[in-house]
Protein: T-complex-associated testis-expressed protein 1
Amino acid sequence: MKIPYVVSTNTRRAYSTSPFMKSSQPEAERKIVAEDFEWDDNVTPAPLTYFAALELSRNFHRINPLNDILQKDINMLMDLYPANIPLRDCVPSIKDEQFWKRSFYTKFPSRKEMGVTFWKGKFLSACLQDYLENVNPDIYIEKDAVELAVLVSPYIYQLSLNQLQIVRQPTPPVPFEDKIEDTCVFSVPKLYDHLPLEAPLAKLYNLQEISLVFGINNVEDGYLPRYFEFSIADCESLCRGLEYLTNLKIFRINRSNLDSSKVKMAGLLSLNRGLTRLDMAANNLSGEAEKTLIRALEQNKKVLRVDLRKTYISDETQKKVVELLERNRSLVGQETEASDEIPTLYLNEPEYLIWEYNPNNPDYIPGRYPERVPEI
Structure:
């Protein structure tokens, strides 16, 4: 690997010779400049291994030499490989972090990231984010999304979606002279569903943190309230996808019209024993949703932080939430008893709900266990 990748730029600058020293008489007459790592650029011809590596770098889609050449030649190839190699070719084979860092800033030049320790995961997460945020929902092919999720799933632990496209609103049928049809605009059912997330989420088995915004960015004069409508279908699709995320620890949903009729990502707290942080800021959780949240927190002794800023909940509910979170923090490191609502026979299985909701019955529990066959 080249020196600039091994020795950081800041270290090289700190120990480099100052311009004042370079202009002094003893320094100016030096013939060997040991700290100049590029002294031979444009001076000596490149070795034959360089030209061989250059040719290999242009044909990665046909020849993958990484398992058959020396490490020093692999390091040279990592500097020569283009950053636009198709993911299906490079993801399974290339592990070099410098290659993935270069790929990240080539594809996303406007993004600035700090403190990244795993560039491959960062780049692949950004690729999946870019696809799900910007794909046209009218030509969205679920199979393509699943294939991309399967490809990147071993490497990504965090996913942020800052916007989700909304499906196209259906239009009334075209009127015909010989038919009697209802062509009124108000007779067409309103659809406010966003891109379905169930299929791709179900494949991201290593995901530990997810942040979602059901809306569209930079709409400017084209703003419509329906862009931010979080529908029941959105909720159901999301919950079915979350069922497979057994390693999930942090879940955020912001800037969406999450209200009492959809506060089921809260009922998830009842049984998801892996979740330690839930962020539902800037959503309307007042009314019946507060009771669901409290019931869920009373059963979950693992969650340590819940962000409820600008959720319009009452002071009484906020106080109760603080008390329950303090209880959970005091239990950290201690073994807690299983909930009485979970049959002992099924304690080793994933604990999830099949959601049902009846807003007309305040005593109705917003969820039930799926039917299971007892083990013999």
User: Anything to note?
Assistant: Residues 340-370 have pLDDT under 50 and may be disordered.
